[in-house]
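Prompt: For my understanding, could you write out one protein's sequence and backbone structure tokens?
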Amino acid sequence: MCERSLGSNVEAIPVEETIGVIQTLEGRNSVIKLADRMVKMFCECLTMPGQVELNHLTLDSIGGVRVSIRATTDDDASQPNGTVVTAATTLWLPLPAQKVFEFLKDPTKRSQWNGLSCGNPMHEIAHISNGPYHGNCISVIKSFIPTQRQMVILQESFTSSVGSYVIYAPIDRKTMDVALRGEDSKELPILPYGLIVCSKNQANLNAPFGASKSIEDGSLITLAAQTYAIGQVLNVDSLNDINSQLASTILNVKDALMSSI
């Protein structure tokens, strides 16, 4: 949060960002605020009040698929009135966490795992640094295909010694342009998805005195997805929709990463 605060108080747009579509400091700060709200909403969705454990939907994951349903309120103008279904699952892969993070944040690799790309190559059109490490940033990503100009992806990626995340949301291009122009973004509609990557460590019984007492044993990848549903109860169509999104994304991530070994 300190790095984000410093980034929003710059007096000029940094050189590495001048090639993007953000032309003003107002636009830069509006996008930062929108990304900040996206990350907070994603973290809130992971609390999953009233969750349902669906162990039969395992997807080779830990603890099966967890599903939660919540009603949006009139107080939140950024989401239409209705019901949001959230689902999450966790997958283990025998790969270093940093390699997994680098793959997930790369827009040129997105078509390999994310259905929002529709299989088309994507590229970054705006970049805001969010810390000294190059992977800590806010990005606006779009398809190379001219006919798909109506949708972009807002993404924030971050890594530290604790873990990493890549949180993103599809946004209508006209809506995104509001933030890029520097207008107030606090009521722009957004429904985030995200992946959290952590190292899975195990005790290193052969470690010499003074050395690390743990060794990295692959990565845990937690994926959470959200969708709007009809009605106030969890119905079969909503469950099938969110499970389909979750399954295709996490299995695509697994296949793409394992094929890169």
Strands lie at 52-54, 65-71, 83-93, 122-129, 137-143, 151-159, 164-172, 193-203, 214-229. The helical segments are 2-7, 25-45, 97-105, 173-180, 236-259. The mean pLDDT is 80. The longest strand covers residues 214-229.
